[in-house]
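Intended use. Records like the one below are meant for learning the mapping from a protein sequence to its folded structure. Do not use them to infer anything beyond what is encoded.
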Amino acid sequence: MSEEKDMSRRKFLKSGILAAGALAVGTSIFHTQVAEAAQLPEGEHCAPPSFPYPYVQLDPEKAKLDGYAGYGKSKCSYGAFEAVIGQLREKIGYPYTHVPTQVLGWGGTGGGGWGTLCGALIGAATAINYTMPKSDADKVVSELFGWYCDYAFPEFMPEAGKALEYEGPIEKSVAKSPLCHVSVSVWCDTSGLKAESKARSERCARITADVAAKAVELLNQFHSKNFKAVYKNEVVDDCMICHGKGHSLENTRGMMDCEQCHTDVDPNNLVDHIKRSWDLL
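Structure written out for the chain above:
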């Protein structure tokens, strides 16, 4: 009889412990849901937030560190995006608490490995557009891209012993293009290293840091009404006199440096180029 009582007591204690555990888990989930719900403004549980999202001044140096760390998690596009959105999430909360920064993971290596637009620019430009209308974002993004084309990357240097892929200084290069494959190829020619080397990957991590910081710098300027576009490419302006909108040829668009790809054009002898364009040779 005593053994039966002892067994019953054990079953009771066991079931009680399990029930208490389930209650604790349920309570934890409940509190988590309440905390998440508390971040939403009253009455907007289902309605999407108004656009653009709010902005506060951010720290460019923190953006560098976060962008660099983000590259280590999911490469350049995510790294630059998270470096900006992450700070806004910390400082503002909703609606940035509902922005899944992982969605920019596709932009690494110039978008799915295609080497088109530099992934760091993809992430940074997307973050910029969250905080302002498209008409303004176009101007700020254009300034970011222009800066990228002329900047000697990388500037950022991680602390000793904290590099992701490669320790020490890395050869700098000026891409003259916002394209991933051009940026990498120019650097490979300058450094003599391979595109799949750890040094190249480290370079891209450091570029992500530099781009994230520049994006924050431009955002701070814009939202404090101190932004002024300064980038200008006279080569492109000259080419668009014939090739641009409303002119005689009107057969191209864009703002990238023309001479980098169109090496057959001699800027000192445009007469022959014009004759070829009009089939006059």
